[in-house]
Write a structure and sequence with these properties.
Residues 170-198 are annotated as: Disordered. The chain is an alpha/beta fold and 329 residues long. It has helices at residues 2-16, 20-31, 56-69, 114-129, 146-154, 178-182, 201-213, 243-256, 275-283, 304-323, and strands at residues 74-81, 87-93, 102-107, 137-141, 217-225, 229-231, 261-263, 286-292. The model is unreliable at 1-15 (pLDDT under 50). Bound molecules: zinc ion (ZN). Zinc ion is lined by residues 110, 113, 224.
Length: 329
């Protein structure tokens, strides 16, 4: 009679408590308080902001502060909304050279992949620290799954992957093979694709915005963790990206370092409904998924800058490859 009560109480405590990872990063927030007033133009990557992982309001405040420092180089625009009505925000880094197409970089479709979001913010800081280094506009959405990301901070669900309706956003994008495999996955699965393609507010609202942007996009990169791979289309295995795209993926992996390789399908497994395939087929742009290297979704904060630098090198290499005409041989 007594034991179930203890279990219920214990269970309630476990469910209510944020994770140890959250506690460690909140202690880091306290240690680094006031960093927004100590930002130095040209040395943004050195900011104590990057000493810790940050919840979405901190990320927004930091990026908005950078925008105030560099109003002509960085602007923000709402590009979608979440299940609970929160805005999905893009940060647009404007290149010094006008007229070039843009690179689109998004992260954190999967809520638990904090290192993907921190690397996207780091990329914005690096682009502002080195104006002109990338002769493309770069549009960065650091957190697609804002609801899920917030849940990883405020509940015990540090390993939550899906959105507020338990849908894997990176299986919810339109795909010609969607129906054949999508609906066989149960809702309890971490890869539940939803009831239909674009059934989720996050994907449908971003799709509306991306369709307008598509003619101006040179390439897209979708950031994830953890596998140490630069992946090229198609994840579903039905089509293969042109050789130029494959070679560019390999070059990006080489630029990122020894922990990285490149391939079409992660571990050879076909996946339907990914953003990578949607961008390749529907937006008709070069499309890559970057899986940061590692061995867990929980990453020590000491690795924020080193992984951020990997994404910076990959982006610089991508831009360089886009400017180099493909070989005719
Ligand atoms: Zn992921």
């Amino acid at each position: 009679m007594f034991l179930p009560v203890l279990w219920v109480v214990g269970h309630a405590i476990v469910c209510a408590a944020p994770s140890e990872d959250v506690a460690a990063n909140e202690a880091c927030h306290a240690r680094t308080a006031g960093y927004l007033s100590r930002l130095v133009s040209g040395q943004l990557r050195a900011s104590a902001y990057f000493d810790c992982f940050r919840p979405w309001p901190h990320m927004q405040a930091f990026l908005d502060a950078l925008s105030h420092m560099h109003p002509s180089a960085l602007t923000s625009v709402p590009v979608g909304s979440t299940t609970t009505g929160l805005p999905i925000v893009a940060y647009h880094v404007h290149a010094a050279t006008a007229g070039k197409k843009a690179l689109y970089v998004q992260a954190t479709q999967h809520a638990r992949e904090w290192i993907a979001g921190s690397s996207a913010v780091y990329l914005v800081a690096a682009l502002l620290d080195a104006p002109g280094a990338v002769p493309f506009d770069v549009i960065v959405v650091p957190v697609v799954n804002v609801d899920g990301y917030e849940a990883t901070w405020t509940t015990s669900r540090r390993y939550q992957r899906k959105n507020a309706r338990a849908v894997d956003l990176n299986r919810n994008w339109p795909n010609p093979h969607w129906d054949s495999q999508g609906n066989s996955t149960p809702v309890t699965s971490d890869a539940f694709p939803g009831s239909s393609a674009l059934s989720e507010t996050e994907t449908s609202s971003l799709h509306t915005w991306l369709q307008v942007q598509a003619p101006g996009l040179a390439a897209v990169v979708d950031l994830h963790s953890y596998a140490g791979q630069v992946l090229f289309p198609c994840a579903d295995g039905h089509d293969k990206a042109p050789l130029q795209t494959q070679q560019l993926a390999m070059a990006m992996a080489q630029a990122m370092g020894a922990d990285y390789g490149s391939e079409q399908m992660l571990r050879g497994l076909p996946l339907v409904g990914t953003f990578r395939d949607y961008a390749h087929r529907q937006l008709q742009t070069l499309s890559f998924t970057v899986e940061l290297a590692g061995d867990d979704f929980v990453v020590p904060a000491a690795r924020i800058r080193s992984h951020g630098e990997e994404i910076v090198r990959a982006t610089f290499r991508l831009a360089q490859g886009l400017l180099t005409p493909p070989s005719s041989t």
